[in-house]
């Protein structure tokens, strides 16, 4: 087994004319690429290989597993690069180049503006392999916000052949037929199996509620739980989910008795990703979870912890007593607009656009389902 061989079995025999590597370097990227892998498999005209890599490849591998799309290739690193972007990029560049030489894909697909996405796009460009940039439209006019994702997105936009956006044009990319709106593919993931959470996510998406997601493990964070009942009383449209090791705390038990509050010891990763993406704000003493939140579109508060080395503008490190005032600031700034309605076909639109790029379809846009004659 080489360092980039799949950990689970062997790759299937190649039986398609075109194949795409779906390269993820973080859990938020997996949340967008996993539904795309399923859409490719359902259409069965392009072979998609899921790739787990990044600074912590096994965390990405586990995220694919949690979303029921096993990683076909887990690209292990020869050394731990740490968190500095230069070290991560240097370590990944050689490994990803080796992967592209070994697999010789027809194209690669990356999401967003992480370091892994930027490096993969650069290496693919050097190998003259087309790059598909998923969710290229999440961009700002500020090169430093979010940092370094916005700058990375602009770099990828200069290298990509196809831009798939959530809505509107892709900033920093040429406008034309290769800019296609597909929606946010995270909506195509399975809904939480726990009906309490499934209904909560629906209320949030319909604009009927806002979610404050709180994950606490350290005893020093217990004082935050004392403030949550007051938050529920202040905002009748706010709901709270508390999870983690502090759920046996007396204050947590009292919180569990209140309406609009759910207390659980642990959340499966698939449900955790969905809840983070739906939340108005995440509060946690887990730096890794807080670091994932901006990639899922959610501002986060890191409780009484050191600033992440590259936190971006959405992550704040707050001392325990000041956490709730920060949460209130985020809630007060929230526009309370319902999320864009999903039709569940975001990932299918991605597959259609890529099929068009390969000449397998006459149109880059997925046609809406036609009513059958029996519906008339």
UniProtKB/TrEMBL annotation:
One of its GO terms (molecular function) is UDP-N-acetylglucosamine 2-epimerase activity. Residues 45-303 form the UDP-N-acetylglucosamine 2-epimerase domain. Signal peptide: none annotated. Its EC number is 5.1.3.14. This is UDP-N-acetylglucosamine 2-epimerase (non-hydrolyzing). SUPFAM superfamilies: UDP-Glycosyltransferase/glycogen phosphorylase. Pfam families: Epimerase_2. Keywords: Isomerase. It comes from Pseudonocardia bannensis. It comes from the Bacteria. It is an enzyme of class 5 (isomerase). Belongs to the UDP-N-acetylglucosamine 2-epimerase family. InterPro entries: UDP_GlcNAc_Epimerase_2_dom, WecB-like.
């Amino acid at each position: 087994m080489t360092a980039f061989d799949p950990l689970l079995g062997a790759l299937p025999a190649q039986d398609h004319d075109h194949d795409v590597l779906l390269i993820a370097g973080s859990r938020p990227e997996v949340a967008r690429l996993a539904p795309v892998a399923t859409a490719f498999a359902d259409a069965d005209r392009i072979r998609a290989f899921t790739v787990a890599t990044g600074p912590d490849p096994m965390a990405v591998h586990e995220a694919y597993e949690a979303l029921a799309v096993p990683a076909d290739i887990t690209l292990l690193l020869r050394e731990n690069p740490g968190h500095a972007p230069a070290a991560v990029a240097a370590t990944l560049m050689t490994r990803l180049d080796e992967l592209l030489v070994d697999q010789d894909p027809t194209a690669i697909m990356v999401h967003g503006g992480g370091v892994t996405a930027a490096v993969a796009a650069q290496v693919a460009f050097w190998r003259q392999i087309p790059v598909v940039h998923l969710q290229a439209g999440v961009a700002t006019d500020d090169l430093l916000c979010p940092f370094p994702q916005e700058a990375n997105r602009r770099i990828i936009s200069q290298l990509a052949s196809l831009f798939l956006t959530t809505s509107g044009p892709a900033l920093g990319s040429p406008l034309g037929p290769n800019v296609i709106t597909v929606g946010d593919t995270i909506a195509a993931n399975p809904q939480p199996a726990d009906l309490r959470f499934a209904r909560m996510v629906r209320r949030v998406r319909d604009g009927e509620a806002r979610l404050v997601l709180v994950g606490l493990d350290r005893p020093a964070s217990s004082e935050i739980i004392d403030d949550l009942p007051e938050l529920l009383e202040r905002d009748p449209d706010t709901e709270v989910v508390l999870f983690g090791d502090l759920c046996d705390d007396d204050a947590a038990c009292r919180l569990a008795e209140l309406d609009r509050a759910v207390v659980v010891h642990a959340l499966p990763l698939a449900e955790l990703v969905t809840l983070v993406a739906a939340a108005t704000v995440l509060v946690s003493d887990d730096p890794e979870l807080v670091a994932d939140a901006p990639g899922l579109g959610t501002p986060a508060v890191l409780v009484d912890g050191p600033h992440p080395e590259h936190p971006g503008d959405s992550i704040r490190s707050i001392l325990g007593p000041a956490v709730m005032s920060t949460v209130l600031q985020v809630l007060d700034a929230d526009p309370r607009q319902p999320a864009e309605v999903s039709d569940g076909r975001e990932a299918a639109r991605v597959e259609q656009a890529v099929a068009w790029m390969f000449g397998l379809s006459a149109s880059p846009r997925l046609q809406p389902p036609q009513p059958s004659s029996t519906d008339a």
